[in-house]
TrEMBL record:
GO molecular function: 5'-nucleotidase activity
Name of the protein: Noncanonical pyrimidine nucleotidase, YjjG family
Domain of life from the UniProt record: Bacteria
One Pfam family hit: Hydrolase
Species per Swiss-Prot/TrEMBL record: Flavobacterium magnum
Chain coiled-coil ranges: none
NCBIfam families with a match to the protein in the record: HAD-SF-IA-v1, YjjG_YfnB
InterPro entries: HAD-like_sf, HAD-SF_hydro_IA, HAD-SF_hydro_IA_YjjG/PynA, HAD_sf, PGP-like_dom2, Pyrimidine_5'-ntase_YjjG
Length: 228
């Protein structure tokens, strides 16, 4: 792989940026400032899978951005049985988006592996996340300087795993697909999407074994050194 790859593309949320940890901290803050007395642990128990379900719908253009932002909160509150007005859900939705980038826990090994790889490869981001907060996450976590280009679904016009977002990223990076590697946590959006477009790919499965023996996988970011 070393002689072939020149450009490495990372997903951001759940791959470099520890979304679940940062999300929990954001909810703790906005619930406190808005006097929402729901049990945070119970709320998160419901919210995490609900959020993943909504992102999958959003990924395939079955819901809008505003429907995602409202619906995941509404469903999570309903699941806990906590009574809350719709107006407050909309307030919390906006405050969550504002607050989320203020917390910037990264997966263990992120800074070390980016420093290591940046000396040998050009690094890039491909994300389905919202344009208005992904840049803030990168800057606030102090890893933005590692990346030559940042491709998000809003500017590309489509979301992973649509091939057009990978083609858009290729043009941004001014490189060829045969020289590219995609690394991400989502098997379908990141890995299979990239492979179908002619990229190489590695599945990031933190703390778990790989889901498919035919697909390269790592359980820790520093394990990338075994391939790169």
């Amino acid at each position: 792989m070393e002689t072939k790859i020149s450009d490495i593309f990372f997903d951001l949320d759940h791959t470099l940026w520890d979304f679940e940890t940062n999300s929990a901290l954001a909810f703790r803050e906005i619930f406190g400032t808005n006097n929402v007395a729901v049990d945070l642990d119970e709320f998160l128990l419901h919210y995490v899978p609900i959020n993943l379900k909504y992102w999958e719908l959003y990924q395939y253009d079955k819901i809008t951005q505003s429907e995602l932002r409202y619906g995941r909160l509404k469903d999570a509150f309903d699941a806990t049985g906590y009574q809350i007005e719709d107006d407050l859900i909309h307030v919390l939705s906006a405050e969550y988006i504002r607050c989320l980038p203020q917390f910037n826990h990264l997966f263990e090994g992120t800074a070390e592996i980016l420093e290591y790889l940046s000396k040998k490869y050009r690094l890039h981001i491909i994300t389905n996340g919202f344009h208005d907060i992904q840049g803030s996450k990168l800057r606030n976590s102090k890893i933005d300087h590692y990346f030559n280009t940042i491709t998000n679904s809003e500017t590309a016009g489509v979301k992973k795993p649509h091939p057009q977002i990978f083609e858009y990223a290729l043009k941004q990076a001014n490189t060829q697909k045969e020289r590219c590697l995609m690394i991400g946590d989502n098997l379908e959006a990141d890995v299979l999407g990239a492979l179908k477009c002619g990229f190489d790919a590695i599945h990031f499965t933190p703390g778990k074994s790989g889901t498919n023996q035919d697909i390269k996988s790592i359980a820790h970011l520093l394990h990338l050194k075994e391939y790169l």
